[in-house]
Amino acid sequence: MPLLGQAAMLLNFDIVPEAVAEHDDWHTHEHLPERLSIPGFLRGTRWAATSAGPAYCVLYEVEQLATLASEAYLARLNNPSPWTQKMMPHYRGMSRGLCRVIRSCGLGMGHYALQLRFKLVQESEASLLQWLGDELMPVLCMRPGLGSIHLLQGGLTATMTSEQRIRGADAGVDWALLVTGYQESAVNSLAQGELAGAALEQRGASQVIATSYRSAYTLTRQEISAG
Questions:
Q1: Alpha helices in the chain (DSSP H)
Q2: pLDDT tens digits for 3-43?
Q3: Which residues is 178 bridged to in the sheet?
Q4: What percent of the chain has pLDDT over 70?
Q5: Considering only CA atoms, which of 214, 197, 215 is closest in space to residue 206?
């Protein structure tokens, strides 16, 4: 499976325009290395939007869901560095999903991504997940231009911490689908094709939000350990 762990943390947010350059510097040189030094964190990727929607998507792959409620992780959130304290007030519209990896198909992580966030009508959940996970995802990840596809479900409610108090309360994530590939047009075309909002809604999804992204920076735990 292309994701490195059994769980993931998915973040979407905007940054006030005047702080974007410093945010990317901080996120690259301090924040990602700090997070990847926490036990159980395996890889972190920052994505930048190429369509309407939250300007940033950050995906942390972690060993298990319990990693995202661990003492080590919460201790870091409750003791933000001076630079982190400076950056937190510049966040807008943060959503933070502490997610189970329900299905992950394909190999690797492409440079382009389509993220779909949605809710599910309870009585349609089983049939939609069967369609996505068993029928559609294994086929899509082998299509030219595509590489991997991941289905995430919110599994924990985030604990209020010092970082969150500075930037404001985070919204949660119900369900998310992340498709990655090496050809931007192939990835983005899914939002008007098999993964169009109307197609998902016909199978019981609601409040579908689609955003296209390109990879901006990736860091793995092995790189931190080697340093």
A1: 20-26, 32-36, 71-77, 82-87, 125-130, 137-140, 162-167, 184-188, 197-202, 221-226
A2: 999 999 999 999 999 999 999 999 999 999 999 999 999 99
A3: 115, 150
A4: 99
A5: 197
Other CB atoms within 10 A of residue 19 CB: 15
Report CA Rg, the chain.
Answer: 17
Whose structure tokens read 């929607």?
53
Decide if 104 contacts 3 (C-beta within 8 A). Answer: yes
Neighbouring CB atoms inside 10 A of 85's CB total 12
Tell me how far apart the alpha carbons of residues 118 and 198 are, in angstroms, rounded to a whole number. 12
* Residue 122 CA: distances (Å) to CA of 119, 130, 200: 9, 14, 14
Distance in angstroms (rounded) separating the CA atoms of residues 75 and 210: 33
Q: How far are the Cα atoms of 9, 137, 156, 194, 195 from residue 125, in angstroms, in the given order?
A: 22, 16, 19, 18, 16
CA distances from 159 to 61, 79, 119, 121, 185 (A): 19, 14, 22, 26, 38
3-state helix, strand and coil shares in percent for the chain, rounded to the nearest 5: 40, 35, 25
pTM of the predicted structure, to 2 decimals: 0.95
Residue linked to tokens 């990896």: 101
Distance CA 169, CA 156 (A): 15
SS3 state of residue 17: helix
Neighbours of 140 (CB within 10 A): 22
Answer yes or no: are the C-beta atoms of 172 and 158 closer than 8 Å: yes
